[in-house]
Amino acid sequence: MANEFPFEISPMFEGERVRKDDMFVELAGPKSRGFELVRAAGLDEIEDGKFTLIGPDISGMQEGSRHPYAMIYRIAGKLVEADLEAIVERRNHDFQNYIQGYMHLNQRYDVWVRINKDAIKKGLKSFEQVAKATMMLFKNELPFIEKIEATYITDPEEVEKQRAEAIKIYEARDARTKGLHDEDVDVFYGCTLCQSFAPTNVCVVTPDRISLCGAINWFDGRAAAKVDPEGPQFAIPKGEIIDKVGGEYSGVNEKAVALSGGEYSRIKLHSFFEYPHTSCGCFEVVGFYIPEVDGIGWVDRDFSGTAPNGLAFSTMAGQTGGGKQIIGFLGVGVNYFRSPKFIQADGGWERVIWMPKNLREKIKADIPPELADKIPTEEDVTDLKTLRDYLEKKQHPITRRWVKEEAAAEAAPAESAAAAPAWSVPAMTMPAGMPMMPQFGGGEGVKLVFKNAKITIDRIVLKGKEKQS
Ligand code: SF4
User: Which of 4, 97, 206, 272 has the lowest CB atom count within 10 Å?
Assistant: First the structure.
C-alpha cells in the first residue's frame, strides 16, 4: 500500500532532520504560524479518506519559502470519544516523521515542519500525498479509528482564523484538570512516545503535572491507556507516598527504573533540584537556575532573544533534553505554571525570577497577585546585573533568601573577602552519579560543567577578581 507514495514510510526516518540548506519549504514554525488539531465526530459525519486543502499546494510554492500551515483531522469509530482527541493528535508528530524527507517538530500551536529537496525530486508535489500517508498510518496504528478525513490549510488568513478556534479547544482541554489533584487519584499515567529520540525519557502525567510537551493531561493519559493498553501511554499505580511536597511515589520510582533501563531510580514530580522529572526535548518551556540570584528563570520556544544568563532557548534546550535528569534545567508544559504544586519543593512561584513577556502574558491570570509586577521580562532586564537590581528594587521574595545567605557568609569570616559580592549560592547536595551542568553566563565570565560527579556543597562564595596594580 505504501508504494503508492513517492517517498518511503518507516519509523527509521524518525529523528531525521531537515537542515536549512536541504530544505525545499518550511511550514509553520517559529517564524510563521500553524497548528494541528484532531476532533472526534460521528461515524456518519465523516467521509473516510477525504482530503481538503485550503491555500496553495506544495507544487505552487517557491524553493526556500515559508508558509503558515494547519493540519486538522476528524476521526470516528465506535470507541472514539472526545477524550481521545489529544492523544491521537500527539501521534501526528510520530506518523509524519515516518515520511522520508518530511520533518515534524513540536505540537499543538507550536508545530514546525520542513520538507527537503530530495523528497520533491522524488515526486512529492502535493499535501494530499502527505495527508493520505498520515491517515493511513493513523488507521493502521490506532485501530479504534474507523474513519478519518483531513483538512490542511496554507492560506494565511484561514490559518489565523482557525488557529484562534483551536487555541480555545486546547484551553478547554487543559481546564478539565483544574479541580483534580494528585492526591485525588490512585493512578498516574506514563508516556514513552519520545523514547525514539530520548531513550531514557519517561513522562509522568498527573492531575497536577501536564506532560512536558503540553499535549497530554491526566484525562488524555487515562483515555489512551484504556483504548490502547499496549500503546505508549500506560497506567502507573501511585504506590506509597515517599515525599509529599516533592511529589515522590514508590509506583512512579518503580516504573522509572523499569522504563529508563535503570538510568535513574527516583523522580520527584514537583522538584526542580532533587531527582527532577526527565526532559525529552518536546518541552514547551525550559526552566534554568540562575545561581547569581538563586532563582529560576523560564524561557519558551517562541522567545528568540537571550535570557539574562546570556543563553538562548535553543542553547538551554540542547542541555535540557535527551531524557536525562539535569539539575539546573527542567522542561515543562505551559500548563504546569497553573498547577498548585508548581515546583513546590523549591519555593514555587517565589523562586520565579524571569520569563519572556509573551510567556508572562499567556499565564498572567495564574501568577500569584503579590508577584504580578515583580517578575521581570526582556523589557525590564538584559543581564544578571540589571536582573539583580530589578529584583532588589521590587522586593521580590527571592531577596529574602539573599539576606539569609549574606548572614551565613558573614558568619564565616575566613571565606569572606572585602572584594566579594555580598551574595552566594545556597547549600545543595547532588545525588551520586547525577550529571550537573550549571551554566553561568550573561557576561559574568564563569562556566562550570560537572559530569557524573558526586559533589557535596555546603556553600559557594563568589568573589570579585582583584585588579593587578
Ligand atoms: S513529551 Fe512526554 S507526554 Fe509528550 S509525547 Fe513525549 S513522552 Fe509523551
Answer: 4
pLDDT tens digits in sequence order for the chain, 469 residues long: 456 899 999 988 987 889 999 999 999 998 999 999 999 999 999 999 999 999 999 999 999 999 999 999 999 999 999 989 999 999 999 899 999 999 999 899 999 999 999 999 999 999 999 999 999 999 999 999 999 999 999 999 999 999 999 999 999 988 888 889 999 999 999 999 888 778 888 999 999 999 999 989 999 999 999 888 888 999 999 999 999 999 999 999 999 889 888 888 999 999 999 999 998 888 999 999 999 999 999 999 889 899 999 999 989 998 888 888 888 999 999 999 999 999 999 999 999 999 999 999 999 999 999 999 999 999 999 999 999 999 999 999 999 998 777 777 777 655 444 333 333 344 443 333 333 444 434 444 555 555 445 555 656 666 665 554 4
Domain of residue 164, CATH code:
3.30.1650.10
- Is 423 part of any domain? no
What total number of domains does the chain contain? 2
Mutate to test the pocket of ligand 1, among 89, 97, 216, 228 (most ligand atoms within 8 A of CB): 216
Query: Ligand 1, residues 14, 96, 219, 280: which to mutate, most atoms within 8 A of Cβ?
Result: 280
Nearest to 192 by CA among 132, 100, 263, 109: 263
* Closest residue CA from atom 1 of ligand 1: 213
Residues 166 and 200 in one domain: no
Distances (CA, A) of 449 to 85, 452, 460, 461: 42, 10, 15, 17
Instruction: For residue 363, tell me if it sits in a domain.
Output: yes
Last residue of a domain, one of 383, 405, 427: 405
Please identify which residue in the block is written with the cell numbers 559580592: 421
Q: Are residues 278 and 326 in the same domain?
A: yes
Residue 7: φ, ψ to 5°: -140, 160
Range of the domain at 258: 182-405
DSSP assignment of 129-190: HHHHHHHHHHHHH-TT--EEEEEEE--HHHHHHHHHHHHHHHHHHHHTTTT--GGG-SEEEE
- Report how far ligand 1's centroid is from the alpha carbon of 271 (Å): 19
The whole-model pTM stands at 0.77
